[in-house]
UniProtKB/TrEMBL annotation:
InterPro entries: DDE_dom, IS_Transposase, Transpos_IS6. This is IS6 family transposase. Keywords: DNA recombination, DNA-binding, Transposition. It comes from the Bacteria. One of its GO terms (molecular function) is DNA binding.
Length: 219
């Protein structure tokens, strides 16, 4: 998404430059987006998917509300009730209030974590009901291929935490009868918010700037 934003302004940079910008500005930007985020939906879809990091199996845990927004993600080596409980605590910390409904697959860890935490919420367990959460993993798979897999769990956690929050900003759950004008206005509001958060100008230079290389920083 960063590459597309820069391309729209006529700016070409190396992947290393984008990576370093992400490391430096990603978390502050995502924190600002979270501060502006309105209350999310009261129906949480929770799901976990296996990802390979440095040749080792890890689990990506993700929550999605009924409107397609991603409250948070968590990457862990294990797939048990302790990790499910950690994910729920993380979600409750950001949401403030528990959901009305929690939808998961047949993994028993969710029910065990819910019981340990004493959450009195409706829990629906059915694989067919959780398509929204499963579909939310697709952008991660695409980025994983582009980045030729994640290098470490820390890098993956840092990247996905920022990536999903920026994607939330530009995610517009259109009503069925939404007009083209409504969609265009919603998109413009999202870009206006992004410009305010990133403190960038809405007007690009009249002559596109092409940068072949901006140097290579090291970790």
């Amino acid at each position: 998404m960063v590459e597309e934003m820069l391309a729209a302004r006529g700016i070409g940079v190396t992947y290393e430059t984008v990576r370093q910008w992400g490391r430096k500005f990603g978390k502050p930007f995502s924190d600002r987006i979270r501060q502006r985020t309105p209350p999310r939906g009261d129906k949480w879809h929770l799901d976990e998917v296996v990802i390979s990091i440095a040749g080792e199996q890890h689990w990506l845990w993700r929550a999605v509300d009924q409107n397609g927004f991603v409250p948070d993600v968590l990457i862990q080596r294990r797939r048990n009730s302790r990790v499910a409980q950690r994910l729920m605590k993380k979600l409750l910390k950001s949401a403030g209030t528990p959901p009305r409904v929690m939808i998961t697959d047949k993994l028993r860890s969710y029910g065990a974590a819910r019981a340990k935490m004493g959450l009195h919420v409706e829990h629906r367990q059915h694989k067919a009901l959780n398509n929204r959460a499963e579909n939310s993993h697709q952008p991660t798979r695409r980025r994983e291929r582009i980045m030729t897999r994640f290098k470490s769990s820390r890098q993956a956690q840092r990247f996905l935490s920022v990536h999903d929050q920026v994607a939330n900003l530009f995610h517009i759950p259109y009503p069925g009868a939404a007009t083209a004008d409504f969609r265009r206005a919603s998109r413009e509001r999202a870009f206006a918010t992004w410009r305010e958060i990133s403190m960038t100008s809405a007007i690009a230079d009249s002559r596109p700037l092409r940068i072949a290389s901006f140097g290579s920083a090291v970790d």
